[in-house]
Write a structure and sequence with these properties.
2 domains, two-stranded antiparallel ribbon, 7 strands, three-stranded parallel sheet, elongated, alpha/beta, 134 residues, 3 helices
Length: 134
């Protein structure tokens, strides 16, 4: 009996905020082609896999909180538009928003050469990414 191979349909879900701040921020790979990357990864695990959808969950960069201001927002938009243009039938950006605590939150102060001290804190902005309409 001959075995037939059938494509394994695969959907990829990416937390864009964690991908950027966890892996890409201080690297040369900010323009990572996530569709190509995950296509390679899934095929290495299952040669008959077929990526049918890549959902990229993110929130727009906020210029007033970004290190590079308006340029951060433009770069993020350009990156998303490039992926949407290259993969119109696969890549989907799912847009959320940022929420921040106007009064800030207390975080331990970093002091070089000193151990962590949760009693020595400073008030900071706490910015959280949220999905709209869930």
């Amino acid at each position: 009996m001959q075995e037939t191979s059938q494509a394994l349909r695969t959907a990829i879900y990416i937390d864009g905020y964690n991908l950027y701040y966890g892996r890409l921020r201080d690297t040369q790979y900010k323009w990572l082609d996530v569709v190509a990357l995950f296509s390679q990864i899934t095929r290495s695990i299952e040669p008959h896999s077929q990526i049918i959808s890549v959902k990229f969950f993110t929130a727009p960069a906020l210029p007033k909180f970004s290190r590079h201001g308006e340029e951060s927002m433009r770069a993020q938009n350009d990156y998303h538009r490039a992926l949407e243009a290259k993969y119109p039938d696969k890549f989907e950006k799912v847009l959320g928003s940022h929420v921040y605590e106007k009064d800030g939150t207390r975080m331990p102060l970093y002091v070089e050469g000193k151990p962590f001290d949760k009693g020595n804190t400073v008030r900071v902005w706490r910015l959280v990414e949220k999905k709209n309409g869930c």
